[in-house]
Amino acid sequence: MFNLFKSKPKAARPIFAPLENDMHCHLIPRVDDGSKSEEETATCLRVMGAAGFKNVFITPHYTIPRFPNVESDILRRFDDLKLDLATHGGYDGPKLLGVAGEYRVDTGFNDRIASSAFLLIGGKYLLTEFSLHQQVLGLDQVMFDLQMKNYDIILAHPERYPYYSSSSHVLQHLKDMGIYFQVNILSLSGFYGEGPRRKAYEMIENGWVEFLGTDMHNTLYAQALIDASHDHKIEKLLEKHTFMNRLFTHPEEEGKKKF
Length: 259
Known about the structure:
Blueprint: E1 21-22, H1 38-50, E2 55-58, E3 61-62, H2 71-87, E4 95-99, E5 102-104, H3 109-115, E6 125-129, H4 139-148, E7 152-156, H5 169-176, E8 180-184, H6 185-188, H7 194-205, E9 211-213, H8 219-228, H9 232-240
Parallel strand pairs: 1-2, 2-4, 3-5, 5-6, 6-7, 7-8, 8-9
Helix pairs in contact: 1-8
């Protein structure tokens, strides 16, 4: 299988092995703004494996109108991807544990709540995201309605929403409601800029962050993950803090102290 990088990258270091599982990436080809081919997906997955991940949940975007994905189609494409990896190219990357979704709280979200049309991480966790440009109206009611249906809610990359500070009263309220937060690993390396990097570290130090995710999209992100694996500040953070990623394969650890 050909190498999609322009030049041979330095090898990733397996510093993310303590997490074991990645639970946020966009590697089903041609369904959103993530991977564009099976080859690109395999390349990204191999980098993730070299960086220490053993298992991966793929979470395509469900966003109206940009990515109006349908769960049945995503499940079929996920099965096709697994078959392709198993039968072509000598794949030796992380195991694909399942497919879920990153669900935008948008104009069609209430309809999804009413119909319970969600694919969950590990059959339990609902990964949600907000617009990067404007705050969600009626957020309390949305989260309450989800909780009334017994979803365990994860908010993806809160550090990337420019309208929230790292000590936002809105984010504090979500934490008080029991919403889990997932920070992007690449935010910690400055991939999205200094603002998200700073907020990501502050949220972690405040004890607000339960999960880390790659949010892997393509080989540009894969190269950034390799670079992050050589970031000694990230390595020290992983030594200091324990995150909940392992719960997807070790549910018996749920009662352990996170920080």
